C-alpha cells in the first residue's frame, strides 16, 4: 500500500507539472446553465455546459462538476455533432466487467469522487473534432433534509472559465408556503451580490444568479479561471402543530411531518468522550471548547452524565445529575481538565454510558447517548461484531446512540453501523479550525426533543419507508413515503401517534387541515418514494449480514436500476463515440478517501497533488497541443470582459469567436430585478365589498381579456418590490407611451421601451442605444442592429456583440449584458399574443443610473389601517388600496398582492420624468 501511495503521488506531480492552464484559444465554454427545481423539498438539478473546440485539431474536452453528496445522479448525456450519447445506469458488478475490458484496452475511466464535507465530483471527457462543439448535461436529484429549522440547496459553480452565457435558475414550489428564503454561500457576497435576484410569493420562490463575465473574475474566490464557489439557497416552509404536509396521488404519497409548536421534553444525555492519545493537540482542545459550550446550553430540567475514556473509564459522576448551576460548573471544570492519554476502549465506554442512562428514570423525558471518538477500538473488546452486539443488547432500542467520528482515522463504517443499529446516526467531524462548531452544531440538532416514540400510521398504504422514530427534534423533520394500496386514495388515512412530555398525542386529519392539492405529479411523488426507499435500504444493508443483507441489497439495486439512480450499488456507464474510452462513474461511500483513476475508489492514501489538480480545470489527458494563431478582427470581446467605450479593435486581449451557429437550447424561464420589477398589466376593475365588520375588503376583478375588449381605458400595471417581504407597491401607467427603462449617464448607453397599445399588453419594442450611431432594437420577432449605415436582422438564436454590449438571444429570452449589468428581455404571451418584458437581472453598480428598471426597492411603513390604509412613503402619508398585479418578470406570471397607489406617489416624482417621446 505504501508503495502505491508513493507512485500515485509521483504520477500526480508529473501530471501537475505537465498541466498548463487551459488556453482560452483552445476551447471555449460558451454557455453554462444550472437549473434547479425544488418541488416539496425534492430538488432536481440540471447542469448544462456547452463547449466549442476552437482549434484546427481534435481536442479532449473535460466536463467536471461538483454535486452534493446526498444527491443521486440520475441522467447524463453528451451531444456531439447532432449525435446523442447517454449514460446508462448498470449494476456495479456488470459495469466493473465493462470497465475491466476498457482497462485491458488501455483506456481510462471517469469517476465520481468525494471532495470535502458536502460535495462530490463528477468528471468525464470526450474528444471533440476541430471546430466542433459538445454539450454536456448532468441531472441529479436529492431530498433536502431539514436541519436546525431550515433546508439548504447547495449549488456549486465552477465552470473553470469565465462564461459569457452563465446563469443559475432556481425555482422552489412548496405547498405549505415558504416561510423565508435567503441566498448564502461564497458567491452571494460582495462583488456578486447584485447578480442575484430573489422573488418570493407565498408558495413559490425564484432565485436567479446572472453574473457578468467581469464579475466572474473579480469575486472573492474567483480568478482568471472564473468562478469557484457555492450558492446556498436556505429556506423553510410554514408549519403548525398539525399533521404536516401530505402530497398524494393515485399511486403514491409523501408525508413531511415537522410540528413546531410543542413544548420541549427534558432530556437525559450522556456524553462519552474519547481521550486516547490520538486525540492529542487541536482535537482535544476543540473537544473541550465544544463540551463547555454544550454544557452551557443544557436546560435546568435536563439531566446529564459525562464519561471520558481511553483504556480506562473516568466518570465525572457515576449517575446522571440535574443540569443546575452547581453541577454544570463542576462538570465544566472536569471538561477543562480532559487530557489525552492511552488507548481506546470503545466497548467499555459505550456500555457504561448505556448503563447510566438505563439506571435513570425515563418517564416524561428523552434519553440520548452521544459518543465522540477519533479512532478504532484498540483495547478491551476489539472485535467489531461483538462490540456491535454488546451495544445493541444494552441499549435495546430504548434510546438513540449518536456517534461522532472525529477526523479521518476513524473506522466510520463501524460507527455508522453502530448508530444505525441503535436508532441514531453517525456524523463525521472534519479536522479543521471549526471542528468545535461542527460538534456544537450537531448537538444543537438534538438539543430540543419535542416528541418520543413517534409512530407514523398509514391506513390504506403499503411499501412504506421507515415509520417508527424514537425521537423527533425541533428543527428537524420526519419524512415518510409509500404506495397507496390499489390506488384507493379515499381510504388512505394518515395518522401520527407519539408521546409529548408524558402525554400521548395523536395527529390526524380530523383536527388538522391537510393540504393534498399539491402540484406534484404521480411520477414525481414516486421518485421521492424511490429515493427515500433506496437511501433507507442502503442504511439497512449496512446493519445486516448473511442472506438478509443480500435480499436488502438486491432490492436496493433493483430500485436503483429502475429509477436510474447512481448509488453505491450502481455505476453509470458513459459510452462515447467509436474508438473512445468508456467511462464508468460510481458513487463513493462516505468516509472514503480521495480516489484516483484506480478501479472503484479503493483507498490509496492522500493524493494532494492529484486533488489540487482537480480544481484547476481541464487536464490535458491527450496532451496540450499549441493552437494555431487565432484570427483577430471583427466582433471582439476581451479576455478581461467587456470594456466601456469603443470596442478594442485588434487589441492584444481580444479573441474572435464565431457564434454564427450558436446552438443554445430554449430556456423557458424568467425573472425580475433585485427586489423589484416592473409589471404592466391591464387596469383592473375594483369592486369594494363591505366585510360586515366595518372594514372594507377590496376585491379585484380577474384579468379577463374582455376588460380591454369592452373599451375600458388601457393601463399597464407596474410592480415596485420592497426591500423586505412586505407587500409590493403597484401603480398604473396608461398605455401607448415610450418609457425610459435604463439610462447610464456616464456611458452613452440607454434603454427605452414602447408600451403596447393593444389588448395583450407589455412592451411592443425595446431599443438599446449603445452609441449615437449604434442601436439594438428588440421586438417579439427578433433583433435589428443598426450600426452606422449597416442594418442587420437576427431572428434565430444568436450571440451578438455591439460595442460594449453583448446580446444573447435564446428562444423566449434575450439576455443583454453590458459591463456591470445584465438585463433579460422575456418574450411573454397572453391570449396567444406575444409581448416583451424587461427584467434587470443585475443592477448596474453606478448609482446615477436612472429609469424605471433602476428604481430602488420601495421602503414604506404602514401608518393607518382603517378606514383606509395609509402608508408612510418618503415622509408622506399616502392612501392605498389593496389590489393585485401579474408579475410577468417570471415566466409563469404569478399574481401578487400589492398596494395600489398613483404613479407619482410610487415614483416620488412626476411620471413625465420617465416618459420619452422618441424611443
Ligand atoms: C422550536 O423552533 C422554533 C423555531 O425554529 C421556535 O420558535 C420554538 O420556540 C422552538 N421550540 C422549542 C420548544 O424550543
Ligand atoms: C409493494 O409491496 C408488494 C407486497 O406488499 C410487492 O408485491 C410489490 O412489488 C411492492 N412494490 C414495489 C414497487 O416495491
Ligand atoms: C412501530 O411501533 C409500533 C408501536 O410502537 C409497533 O407495533 C411496530 O411493530 C413498530 N414497527 C416497526 C417496523 O418497528
Ligand atoms: C386530534 O384529535 C384526536 C381525537 O380525534 C385527539 O385524540 C388528539 O389528541 C388530537 N391531536 C391534537 C394534536 O390535537
Ligand atoms: C428548468 O427545469 C424545469 C424543470 O425541468 C423546466 O420546467 C424549466 O423549463 C427549466 N428552465 C430552464 C431555464 O431550462
Ligand atoms: C420593512 O422595512 C422597513 C424599513 O426597513 C420597515 O419600516 C418595515 O416595518 C418593514 N416591514 C416589514 C413587514 O417587515
Automatic annotation (TrEMBL):
Signal peptide, first to last residue: 1-20
PROSITE patterns named among the record's database cross-references: VIT, VWFA
Entry keyword set: Glycoprotein, Protease inhibitor, Secreted, Serine protease inhibitor, Signal
One Gene Ontology term, aspect cellular component: extracellular region
One function term, GO molecular function aspect: serine-type endopeptidase inhibitor activity
UniProt cross-references to InterPro entries, sorted A to Z: ITIH, VIT, VWF_A, vWFA_dom_sf
Domain annotation VIT: ranges: 13-142
UniProt cross-references to Pfam families, sorted A to Z: VIT, VWA
Primary localisation category: secreted
UniProt cross-references to SMART domains, sorted A to Z: VIT (SM00609), VWA (SM00327)
Localization per record: Secreted
Sequence ranges assigned to domain VWFA in this UniProt record: 268-446
Protein family membership: Belongs to the ITIH family.
Stated name of the protein: Inter-alpha-trypsin inhibitor heavy chain 3b, tandem duplicate 1
Species in which this protein is naturally found: Dicentrarchus labrax (European seabass)
Lineage: Eukaryota, Metazoa, Chordata, Craniata, Vertebrata
Amino acid at each position: 500500500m505504501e508503495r502505491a501511495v508513493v507512485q500515485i503521488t509521483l504520477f500526480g506531480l508529473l501530471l501537475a507539472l505537465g498541466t498548463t492552464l487551459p488556453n482560452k484559444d483552445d476551447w471555449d465554454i460558451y454557455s453554462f446553465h444550472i437549473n434547479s427545481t425544488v418541488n416539496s423539498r425534492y430538488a432536481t438539478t440540471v447542469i448544462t455546459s456547452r463547449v466549442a473546440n476552437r482549434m484546427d485539431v481534435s481536442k479532449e474536452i473535460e466536463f467536471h462538476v461538483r454535486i452534493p453528496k446526498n444527491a443521486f445522479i440520475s441522467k447524463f448525456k453528451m451531444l456531439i455533432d447532432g449525435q446523442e450519447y447517454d449514460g446508462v445506469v448498470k449494476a456495479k458488478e456488470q459495469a466493473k466487467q465493462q470497465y475491466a475490458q476498457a482497462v485491458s484496452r488501455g483506456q481510462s475511466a471517469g469517476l465520481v469522487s468525494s471532495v470535502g464535507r458536502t460535495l462530490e465530483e463528477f468528471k468525464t471527457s470526450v474528444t471533440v473534432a476541430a471546430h466542433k462543439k459538445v454539450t454536456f448535461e448532468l441531472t441529479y436529484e436529492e431530498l433536502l433534509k431539514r436541519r436546525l429549522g431550515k433546508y439548504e440547496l447547495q449549488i456549486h459553480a465552477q465552470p473553470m472559465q469565465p462564461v459569457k452565457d452563465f446563469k443559475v435558475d432556481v425555482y422552489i414550489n412548496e405547498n405549505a408556503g415558504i416561510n423565508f428564503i435567503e441566498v448564502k454561500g461564497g458567491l452571494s457576497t460582495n462583488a456578486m451580490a447584485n447578480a442575484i435576484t430573489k422573488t418570493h410569493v407565498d408558495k413559490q420562490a425564484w432565485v436567479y444568479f446572472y453574473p457578468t463575465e467581469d464579475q466572474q473574475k473579480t469575486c472573492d474566490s474567483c480568478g482568471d479561471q472564473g468562478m469557484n464557489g457555492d450558492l446556498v439557497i436556505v429556506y423553510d416552509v410554514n408549519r403548525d402543530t398539525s399533521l404536516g404536509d401530505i402530497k398524494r396521488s393515485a399511486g403514491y404519497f409523501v408525508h413531511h411531518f415537522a410540528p413546531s409548536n410543542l413544548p420541549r421534553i427534558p432530556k437525559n444525555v450522556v456524553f462519552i468522550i474519547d481521550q486516547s492519545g490520538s486525540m492529542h493537540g487541536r482535537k482535544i482542545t476543540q473537544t473541550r471548547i465544544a463540551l463547555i459550550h454544550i454544557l452551557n446550553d443544557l436546560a435546568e430540567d435536563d439531566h446529564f452524565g459525562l464519561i471520558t475514556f481511553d483504556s480506562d473509564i473516568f466518570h465525572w459522576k457515576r449517575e446522571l445529575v440535574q443540569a443546575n448551576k452547581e453541577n454544570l460548573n463542576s462538570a465544566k471544570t472536569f471538561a477543562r481538565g480532559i487530557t489525552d492519554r492511552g488507548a481506546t476502549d470503545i466497548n467499555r465506554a459505550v456500555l457504561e454510558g448505556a448503563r447510566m442512562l438505563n439506571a435513570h428514570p425515563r418517564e416524561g423525558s428523552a434519553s440520548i447517548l452521544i459518543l465522540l471518538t477519533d479512532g478504532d477500538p484498540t483495547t478491551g473488546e476489539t472485535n467489531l461484531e461483538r462490540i456491535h452486539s454488546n451495544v445493541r443488547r444494552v441499549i435495546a432500542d430504548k434510546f438513540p446512540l449518536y456517534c461522532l467520528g472525529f477526523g479521518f482515522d476513524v473506522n466510520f463504517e463501524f460507527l455508522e453501523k453502530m448508530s444505525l443499529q441503535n436508532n441514531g446516526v453517525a456524523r463525521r467531524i472534519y479536522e479543521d479550525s471549526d471542528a468545535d462548531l461542527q460538534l456544537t452544531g450537531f448537538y444543537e440538532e438534538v438539543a430540543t426533543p419535542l416528541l418520543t416514540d413517534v409512530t407514523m400510521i398509514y391506513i390504506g398504504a403499503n411499501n412504506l419507508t421507515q415509520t417508527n422514530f424514537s425521537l423527533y427534534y425541533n428543527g428537524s423533520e420526519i419524512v415518510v413515503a409509500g404506495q397507496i394500496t390499489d390506488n384507493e386514495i379515499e381510504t388512505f388515512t394518515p395518522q401520527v401517534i407519539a408521546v409529548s412530555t408524558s402525554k400521548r398525542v395523536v395527529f390526524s386529519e380530523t383536527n388538522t387541515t391537510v393540504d393534498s392539492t399539491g402540484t406534484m405529479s404521480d411520477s414525481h411523488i414516486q421518485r421521492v418514494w424511490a429515493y427515500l426507499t433506496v437511501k433507507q435500504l442502503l442504511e439497512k444493508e449496512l446493519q445486516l449480514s448473511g442472506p438478509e443483507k443480500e435480499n436488502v441489497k438486491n432490492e436496493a439495486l433493483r430500485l436503483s436500476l429502475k429509477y436510474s439512480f447512481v448509488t453505491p450499488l450502481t455505476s453509470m456507464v458513459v459510452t462515447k463515440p467509436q474508438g473512445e474510452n468508456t467511462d464508468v462513474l460510481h458513487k463513493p461511500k462516505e468516509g472514503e478517501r480521495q480516489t484516483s483513476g484506480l478501479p472503484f475508489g479503493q483507498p490509496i492514501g492522500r493524493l494532494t497533488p492529484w486533488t489540487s489538480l482537480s480544481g484547476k480545470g481541464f487536464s490535458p489527458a491527450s496532451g496540450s497541443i499549441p493552437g494555431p494563431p487565432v484570427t483577430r478582427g471583427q466582433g471582439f470581446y476581451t479576455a478581461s470582459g467587456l470594456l466601456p467605450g469603443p470596442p478594442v479593435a485588434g487589441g492584444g486581449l481580444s479573441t474572435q469567436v464565431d457564434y454564427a451557429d450558436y446552438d443554445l437550447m430554449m430556456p423557458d424561464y424568467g425573472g425580475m430585478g433585485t427586489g423589484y420589477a416592473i409589471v404592466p398589466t391591464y387596469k383592473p376593475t375594483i369592486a369594494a365589498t363591505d366585510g360586515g365588520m366595518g372594514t372594507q375588503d377590496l376585491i379585484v376583478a380577474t384579468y379577463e381579456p374582455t376588460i380591454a375588449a369592452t373599451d375600458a381605458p388601457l393601463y399597464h400595471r407596474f410592480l415596485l418590490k420592497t426591500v423586505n417581504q412586505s407587500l409590493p407597491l403597484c401603480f398604473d401607467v396608461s398605455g401607448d407611451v415610450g418609457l425610459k427603462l435604463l439610462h447610464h449617464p456616464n456611458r452613452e448607453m440607454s434603454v427605452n421601451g414602447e408600451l403596447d397599445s393593444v389588448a395583450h399588453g407589455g412592451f411592443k419594442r425595446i431599443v438599446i442605444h449603445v452609441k449615437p450611431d449604434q442601436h439594438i432594437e428588440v421586438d417579439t420577432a427578433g433583433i435589428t442592429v443598426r450600426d452606422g449605415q449597416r442594418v442587420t436582422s437576427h431572428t434565430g438564436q444568436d450571440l451578438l456583440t455591439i460595442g460594449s454590449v453583448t446580446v444573447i438571444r435564446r428562444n423566449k429570452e434575450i439576455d443583454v449584458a453590458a459591463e456591470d449589468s445584465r438585463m433579460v428581455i422575456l418574450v411573454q404571451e397572453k391570449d396567444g399574443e406575444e409581448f416583451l418584458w424587461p427584467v434587470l437581472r443585475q443592477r448596474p453598480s453606478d448609482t446615477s443610473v436612472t429609469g424605471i428598471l433602476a428604481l430602488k426597492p420601495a421602503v414604506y411603513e404602514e401608518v393607518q389601517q382603517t378606514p383606509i390604509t395609509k402608508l408612510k412613503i418618503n415622509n408622506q402619508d399616502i392612501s392605498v388600496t389593496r389590489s393585485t398585479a401579474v408579475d410577468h418578470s417570471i415566466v409563469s406570471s404569478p399574481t401578487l398582492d400589492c398596494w395600489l397607489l398613483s404613479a407619482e406617489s410610487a415614483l416620488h416624482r412626476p411620471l413625465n420624468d420617465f416618459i420619452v417621446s422618441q424611443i
